[in-house]
Amino acid sequence: MAESTTESTGRNESEGGKLGSGPGRVLVWFYGVFTVAAASRSIVQMIQDFGKAPLAYVLSAVAAVVYGFITFSLVRGGERLRRTALVCCAAELVFVLTVGTWTLADKSAFPDATVWSDYGAGYLLIPVILPVLGMLWLRRNRAAA
């Protein structure tokens, strides 16, 4: 079956949904939920008492941006976004492991929790599992993007 290219996007019509289809839909859902959760958490915390734990609140905002970009990449598809999302998932895992270890080693460093505190224990450890699953899915679908 021949694939056609849309003039508005320059992408194959079948290209967009492959990363976000099948098991990818579950990833899209989780990343979408975590985008909203991290953004909401950081916005409320920054408005209420930014001075209490600015690093924690900024890290939650960074998490929201990373989650949002990965969500967009999975929905939109395409090889360039797939590769960029793969890098974002790897960076997300590094952040989760770094912040998780830091919060366990020095509780005083974070007067308030972030999405990535204690490896995401406040979110059922999903923040440490999600980037691994994301990287596996993105690598598996490199030809499908």
UniProtKB/TrEMBL annotation:
Keywords: Membrane, Transmembrane, Transmembrane helix. The chain crosses the membrane at residues 26-44, 56-75, 84-105, 120-138. The keyword Membrane applies. The keyword Transmembrane helix applies. This is Integral membrane protein.
